Amino acid sequence: MTSGRFRWFFAEAAKSLRSNFSTTLAAVVTVLIVLFLFGVGAALGSYIYSYTEKVRSDVTIKVWISDKATDSEKKTIQDRLVADDRVERDSLLFFTKEEALAEARKRFSAEAIRILVGNPFPARFEIKAKDPDQSAEIAAAVAGMKGLEKSTSELPNPDYGSQTADKVLSTAGVIEAVIAGMAIILAIAAVLLIGNTIRLSIFARRREVEVMKLVGATNWFVRWPFVLEGMICGVVGALGAVIVLRISYAAIRGYFQTETLSGQGGTVSAMAFWQLTVLLLVAGLALGAAGSGLTMRKFLRI
Q1: Does pLDDT of 263 surpass 60?
Q2: Which of 55, 77, 105, 113 qualifies as a FRET site for 39, CA 20 to 30 Å off?
Q3: Would you call 202 helix, strand, or coil by DSSP?
Q4: Could you say which of 145, 160, 175 is where a domain stops?
C-alpha cells in the first residue's frame, strides 16, 4: 500500500467520522467505558493472579511430631518425606521443640507466652511440594504414621493450611471468571456499536461505493476507509480509557502503600501501567477492526 493511497484512505475515514459525529462520539465513549472497565479488570485480575500464585508458592506442609515419638519413628517419617518424588528437593526442614518455642516468642506477645505451662509446641518437619496442588496428596501419604501428633478436624496433621489456601484459591478463581465474563460482554457491546457506526457510514456512501465497484475497485480498496474508521474509533476510545485510568490511579494511589498498577508492589503486584496501556491500545484496535470487519462482510456484497 503506497503512502499516497493510505493518506486517501485515512482522509476518507476522517471525513466519514466527521459527517457522523454523534454516532462516532457514542462509539468512542462506549469503547472508552468498555476499555476502562477492561483495564480495571485486567489490573485487578493480574493482581489476583499474582496473589494466588504467592499463596500457592507459600503453601508449606507441616508434619507435627509427637513428644513420645522415638528416633526410629522420626527417621521413618523423614525417609518417607524425602523419598516422595512430589516433594521439592532440599525443602525439608526440621524444627525442634525449643526452636518452635523460640519462634512462638517472636510471633506472640510476652503475656501470651508467660501463661504457658512448659513447652506445648511439638517438633515438626516442614516441606514444600513441587506442585502446590499436590500438597493434599503428600499430606495424605504421611497421615497416620507412627510418631505423629494426633490429628483433629480443627488441627489436622499433616497441615498445609488447606482451609485458608483452598478458600483463597477458589474465591480468586470465581473473581477471575466474573471479570472475564464481564470483559467478553462489554467487548461484544463495543463491537456492535462500532459496527453500527460503520453501517451508517456505508449507508450514507452506498452510491459512491457502488460506483467504485462498477469501475473495478477491489473489495479491499472499498473496505480500507471503513476499517480505518473503526480502528480510529477504537484507538481514540482506548486513549481516553488510558487517561481516565491514569487519573483514577493517581487519585487513589495515596490510599495504598503498594503500587498496585505500577508492577512494583513487592511480591504481589498488578501488571505495570505501560503494559496496561499497550494492552488497551491493542484491544482498541482489535475492537475497531472487528466491528468494521463484521459489518463489511454483510453490507459490501455488491
Answers
A1: no
A2: 55
A3: helix
A4: 160
Beta strands (DSSP E) in 101-238 are 124-127
Same domain as 109, residue 27: no
User: How many angstroms separate the CA atoms of 174 and 166, rounded?
Assistant: 12
Whether residue 31 is found in the same domain as residue 171: yes
pLDDT band for position 243 (50/70/90)? Answer: very high
Q: Which three cell numbers stand for residue 174?
A: 470465581
For residues 242 and 261, what is the distance between their CA atoms, to the nearest angstrom? 12
Q: Is residue 138 located within the same domain as residue 241?
A: no
98-112, 224-238, 247-261: the lowest-pLDDT one: 247-261
The tally of domains found in the chain comes to: 2
Instruction: Tell which of 127, 160, 193 closes a domain.
Output: 160
Give me the residue label for grid cell 497416620: 144
Cβ pair 129, 46 in contact under 8 A: no
Instruction: Give residue 161's region: left, alpha or beta (phi > 0; psi -120 to 50).
Output: left
Statement to judge: residues 221 and 270 lie in one domain:
yes
- In this predicted structure, the answer to whether residue 253 has a pLDDT above a threshold of 70 is no
Range 2-31 average pLDDT = 66
Distances (CA, A) of 128 to 57, 86, 132: 9, 9, 8
CA 61-66-68 angle, to 5 degrees, is 160
Cα 23 from Cα 194, distance rounded (Å) = 9
How many Cβ atoms from other residues are within 10 Å of residue 153's Cβ?
5
Which residues have C-beta within 8 Å of that of residue 176, sequence separation ≥ 6? Answer: 45, 48, 49
Residues 184 and 269 in one domain: yes
pLDDT over 70 (residue 139): yes
Determine the Cα–Cα distance for residues 261 and 275; give it in Å rounded to an integer: 10
Residue 261, pLDDT > 60, answer: no
Give residue 146's domain range.
60-160
Same domain, 67 and 204: no
| Residue 205 pLDDT > 70 | no
Same domain, 257 and 125: no
